[in-house]
């Protein structure tokens, strides 16, 4: 019998009540939590929202979440054959499921548009 990891994921939209969803994923030593989340999205629940941009581990910060109560990168946190609780970052604006607002306020599109940086220049 193949070992599995149980991912207990806190889900919900910004401003709504949250709930948890539980997923059993195949476990192979060396896999990351992100591997488990990608398995869920591909095979079990395409509605699960998680952000990642695996250009270089620990540099993009796209997949930063709370794993068992500690802030970690989903791409480097190791999947384990047990129950693992995954939550969005608590100190960032919650968007949906494990996705939070990570861009600094002055780097967001709405800031650029308000400051005039987003205008199209004719002939450019």
Task: Name some characteristics of this structure.
124 residues, globular, Ubiquitin-like (UB roll)
Describe the structure.
The chain is of the alpha+beta class and 124 residues long. It has a single domain, classed as Ubiquitin-like (UB roll) (Roll), CATH 3.10.20. Helix content is 15%, strand content 27%. The protein has two helices and seven strands. The strands form two sheets. The chain has a five-stranded mixed β-sheet with strand order 2-1-5-3-4, covered by helices on one side. Strands 6-7 form a two-stranded antiparallel sheet. The protein is globular. The chain starts with a strand and ends in a 10-residue tail after the last helix.
Low-confidence spans: none
Number of strands: 7
Q: Can you name the CATH architecture?
A: Roll
Secondary-structure element pattern, one letter each: EEHEEEEEH
- CATH level-3 fold name: Ubiquitin-like (UB roll)
CATH superfamily: Beta-grasp domain
| Principal-axis shape | globular
Structural class: alpha+beta
């Amino acid at each position: 019998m193949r070992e599995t990891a149980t991912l207990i994921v806190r889900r919900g939209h910004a401003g709504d009540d949250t709930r948890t969803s539980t997923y059993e994923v195949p476990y192979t030593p060396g896999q990351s939590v992100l591997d488990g989340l990608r398995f869920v999205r591909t095979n079990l629940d395409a509605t699960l929202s998680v952000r990642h941009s695996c250009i270089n581990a620990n540099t993009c910060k796209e997949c930063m979440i709370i794993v068992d109560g500690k802030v970690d990168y989903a791409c480097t946190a190791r999947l384990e054959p047990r129950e693992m609780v995954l939550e969005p970052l608590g100190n960032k604006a919650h968007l949906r499921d494990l996705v939070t607002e990570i861009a600094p306020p002055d780097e967001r599109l709405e800031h650029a548009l308000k400051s005039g940086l987003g205008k199209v220049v004719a002939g450019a």
